Amino acid sequence: MNMNQLINMVIRMVMQKLMNFGIRKGTQLAAGKGKPAAEMTPAERKAARDMRAAVKRARQAARITRRIR
User: Origin, by domain of life (predicted)?
Assistant: First the structure.
């Protein structure tokens, strides 16, 4: 392995971690993580629960497609 390959590998790993971090934070924000459950209306609670379930399915699908590649 030459130096260029090592640098590319490290950069790719760091970028993947940063992308995962950003995606998780964005989905948590969209799912209503910023508001306590006690302050939410029942409709908001249901929407947040549904969003978390959708995000979980999306993460699972992303994991599966990564394995297939």
Answer: Bacteria
DSSP string, 13-39: HHHHHHHHHHHHHHHHHHTTTTS-GGG
Cβ–Cβ < 8 Å for 31, 51: yes
Report the predicted TM-score, pTM, of the whole model to 2 decimal places.
Answer: 0.48
Give the residues of the chain that fall short of pLDDT 50. Answer: none
What gap in Å lies between CA 66 and CA 63, rounded to an integer?
A: 5
Q: What are the structure tokens assigned to 37, written together?
A: 């459950």
Six-digit token string for 52: 């978390």
Number of Cβ within a 10 Å radius of residue 23: 14
What is Dmax (Cα atoms) for the chain? 58
